[in-house]
Amino acid sequence: MAYVAIADRDHHLHDPDTFITKYIWSQDHKVIAIQYGVVAIGVGLIALALSLLMRLQIGFPDLFSFMTPYNYYQYVTTHGMIMVIYLLTALFLGGFGNYLIPLMCGARDMVFPYMNMLSFWVYLLSVIVLIASFFVPGGATGAGWTLYPPQAILDGTPGSDWGIVLMLVSLAIFIVAFTMGGLNYVTTVLQARCRGMTLMRMPLSVWGIFVATILGLLAFPALFVAAIMMTLDRMIGTSFFMPALLALGETTDTTGGSPILFQHLFWFFGHPEVYIVALPAFGIVSDLLSTHARKNIFGYRMMVWAIVAIGALSFVVWAHHMYVSGMNPYFGFFFATTTLIIAVPTAIKVYNWVLTLWRGDIHLNLPMLWATGFIFTFIHGGLTGLFLGNVTVDLPLSDTYFVIGHFHMVMGVSPVMVLFGAIYHWFPKITGRMPNDVLGKIHFWMTFLGTYAIYLPMHYLGILGMPRRYYDYGQTDFIPDSALGVNQGITIAAIVVATAQLIFLFNVALSLWKGKRADSNPWRATTLEWQTPDTPPKHGNWGPKLPEVHRWAYDYSVPGDEADFIPQNHPIKPGEESLRVAGASRK
Amino acid sequence: MAQEGMNPAADALPPEGWRGIVDDWATDKQAFHVPWGKAMMWIFLLSDTFIFTTFLTGYMNVRMSTAVEWPNPSEVFALSIFGQPIPLILIAIMTFVLITSSGTMALAVNYGYRRDRYRAAALMFVTAAFGAIFVGMQAFEWTKLIEEGVRPWANPMGASQFGASFFKITGFHGLHVSAGVVYLAVGALKVLRGDYERRGGNYEIVEITGLYWHFVDLVWVFIFAFFYLW
Ligand code: HEM
Ligand SMILES: [Cu+2]
Question: I need a labelling partner for A350 at 20 to 30 A (CA). Which of A494, B97, B117, B194 fits?
């Protein structure tokens, strides 16, 4: 077929020659990945700074005179939105998706490089619109990252004049960007793998990113539609989400809309979104664990099917975020059940990770530290999720710091752990230099212990009943004075964790500048991206000839083999038992 | 063709039933034996289906939850012809036009397969023209409703969500049709100019455009059913 021939040909891509075509308007998936990564980490730092401001306010309420409750709401909202969408989604899919999919699948690039490039620039636009919302009259929206109407667009909520509109527009733009990138990722995985790379031989990183992208393509539409409808409500006065209301002593001229409809649309997107950031993390962590424990991943097929099952189930659990909104008890029962069912494939994955480590030849280097750290934080976050999945337990805990602690553990810290592991793991391939080990280890221990110091006490505060999204707690009967002490401790831990991230940035800069040169496969890994002729890989990735795959991605410590790993592109040796050659078994 | 991109075991007979389907999907290189552009269009349309489904469920939800009565569509969408109000006549014509355009599109795809570029281009232009007529009639319908006082935020005949949903959904669909008209026209020009002759006479672009166009028509059928007939 013609298009296959194109992919095989050496010069199907015009090699860029000027600085601009090479690094700025680049269509090379690796450059686009780095662009995504840099922008995402950049906005992530803003979100981190906002979280510190909030923490300082909660721990030391009289410290800042400039921060009003109005600002606090804006910070909460922007922090949450950036972290979930503009940092994690963009970095996992736009960053690692772009970098890893073609390299791990043995393709020269994404199938439509031009559209891939556009995806990044449109993403950048969405970030600019988001940041701009801080500078318009009234400032950014303070509706909370869930943006629930009616309050999101009523007077009295911060940013109800322009902030909310810019937020919705920015989200819509982000979705356009994501769609352009996402179509590329999915099509590349489905249609452009190299010879021998069957679906069941793909590394789990690719599986995670692939299924997450599909979730994104099916879940973001709901947010898109909700954003359009809310923009119409705000701008031209339709009443999709707006019932007749008495607000600030005046009746609004809206009638008959349904605020609950927004919640359904938002969470139909919002819950899969959790898995959009979790599935790539699941996939990547599997590869890190296997590589650095020098052992094949335990239960590869089970891992693949667990990813697919979690992805499918994630579409039928959304209303567990709405138990307090009120619903028919049968619905509550249904959603509680599906939520608990999703724990099954998730638990299978956790067991398999632990079993992969079991009696492995564990190298506690940087990527491995982060990967094992992830197992801890994820189990903790997952366990509290089981509490919140049950209607009766959730009702008193909802909207307290217990929830804050839960979701930061499960979808904040855990994916971030994997991200750092992944950055340290692929740093040598991306830059050609090794990251500094000592700085990396300091970074890890400060972050890992620090996040526990931050989030474990929050569960306790939540059980005391401390509500979330509060600027100040004042005098209350049910929150003892000692809670302030706990809050101060949490804030100090947050400052420590934030400092650790500066060490990370310093490490990146230092290693780029002076780091030890990396050879092409420093971790002695099996997957294709480590087998490129050049490091960092050149435009077109593979030199004159595409690789050919003969085995699955996990041939570590194969008995009877002198090296403890066999790359995927090494032919099967005579006498190798066919058991390990997964995917070839049907021959 | 067949020896490219197949799994190494392609010379063996493919297994039957589910096993065969699974094997087919899991082959190396390609899960579906279609061009990249076509695969991508399918995935895009799947995503777009979710957009329209959400629009329609959102609309049904507000229609059921609103406190004010919903206007009767067959009265609202009636046209007076010779003093006789005929319910849904304009929509019927619009639907007919759009479905006819699907027919001409299918013919264009057929001629594309045969590499008859003049006929294919001509039929694409005809399809685009039908699309433009559809959009024109929609503009007429919007004008009529606006003259009768229907607005996205208010509606003299009942629930304000009627106007809001109507303008939003038909507007979003109309944008899709308009985009399709441009897409078809540009595609037809390129076909006519012989751009694809130079690429080895590969006219799959006609088929990809066709996929999009049929999708837009299909969505209209649902809008028609849920908005006008309910
Ligand atoms: C050092 C790291 C972090 C700290 C100190 C931190 C701190 C906070 C604080 C203080 C709040 C507001 C609590 C309230 O008043 O209700 C918050 C909310 C939130 N955070 Fe973080 N956070 C961190 C990292 C993250 C990450 C990585 C994510 C990614 C998922 C995240 C997602 C959110 C979300 C979604 C909210 C809810 C916003 C809302 O209520 O609308 N955070 N965080
Ligand atoms: Cu959820």
Answer: A494
Q: Which CATH number fits domain A5-242+254-585: 1.10.1740.10, 3.30.420.10, 2.60.120.460, 1.20.210.10?
A: 1.20.210.10
Digit-by-digit pLDDT tens for chain B (230 residues) are: 333 333 444 344 556 677 777 776 677 778 888 889 999 999 999 999 999 999 999 999 999 888 888 888 878 887 777 777 787 888 899 999 999 999 999 999 999 989 888 999 999 999 999 999 999 999 999 999 999 888 888 888 888 889 999 999 999 999 999 999 999 999 999 999 888 887 777 888 999 999 999 999 999 999 999 988 87
Q: Answer whether B9 sits within 8 Å of A586, measured CB to CB.
A: yes
Disruptive mutation site among B4, B34, B54 for chain A (greatest number of A CBs within 10 Å): B54
Q: What b-and-e string marks burial along A463-496, b requiring 16 or more CB atoms within 10 Å of the CB? A: ebebbbeebeeeeeeebeeebeebbeebbbbbee
Strands A246-247 and B78-81: unpaired
**CA A38/CA A127 separation, integer angstroms:** 12
Q: From CA A167, how far away is CA A159, in angstroms rounded?
A: 10
The domains of chain A are located at 5-242+254-585
Least confident of A146-160, A400-414, A468-482, B216-230: A468-482
The DSSP bridge partners found for residue A517 are A433
Q: In a 10 Å sphere around its CB, with 0-12 CB exposed, 13-18 middle and 19+ buried, how is residue B80 labelled?
A: exposed
**Residue listed under structure tokens 């979280």:** A51
Report CA Rg, chain A: 24
Chain A residues with CB-CB distance to B9 below 8 A: 586-587
Task: Name which CATH class applies to B35-228.
Answer: mainly alpha
> Can you name the residues that pair with B86 across neighbouring β-strands?
B79
Q: Which of A76, A377, A397, A459 is the pocket-test mutation for ligand 1 (most atoms within 8 Å of CB)?
A: A76
User: Which residues make beta-bridge pairs with A195?
Assistant: A548
